[in-house]
Amino acid sequence: MDSYDIALLNGAETTFRVPFLQSALGEPKVGFIIVGKDSPQFIECEKRMRIESVKRRALAGKLIDTRTDEGAAELVGISIENEIRLAAAVTVGWFGFTDQSTEAPFDPALARKALEKRAAWRTAIMQALENESNFLPS
Fold it and tell me: Superkingdom, according to UniProt (predicted)?
């Protein structure tokens, strides 16, 4: 891409398919459909997490002491929970998921539960979010 048409800035939100299972030919079979960092979902979730972080620091009156096992564990727990929240917030659909051989309708609560259990799926979503070209209209 040598240029970017500014008329696209007013366009519809772009989604990206993040596959987790592929066919023998490499075609995506199962995965999530996500929106990018400029989406209202991402922006609102990140804003809520930042507000909570500010409040947590104000209530505690100090930063988390990561030199201790307890402090390090607390910080790691917050980091994992924030990753789950962001991944779930940007997930707006799925493909290839079935329930007793019938295509399953998208369920945000079930998607979050899957993201809580499958760290590799969260990682794939977070990596896809970092690639801006995934969300540029073609």
Answer: Bacteria
pLDDT in tens, 85-103: 999 999 999 999 999 999 9
Q: Which two tokens stand for residue 28?
A: 């995506």
Q: What angle do CA 113, 135, 47 make, to 5 degrees?
A: 55
**Residues paired with 22 in a beta bridge:** 28
**Which residues 6+ apart lie within 8 Å of 22 measured at CB?**
28, 29
Task: List the domain boundaries for the chain.
Answer: 15-21+29-132
Q: Are 93 and 136 in contact (CB under 8 A)?
A: no
35-to-14, 56, 84, 131 alpha-carbon distances in Å: 6, 28, 15, 12
CA distance 88 to 33: 11
| DSSP H stretches of helix in the chain | 40-60, 69-90, 108-117, 119-130
DSSP class of residue 6 equals: G
pTM beyond 0.90: the answer is: no
- The two three-digit tokens of residue 23, written as one number: 């066919």
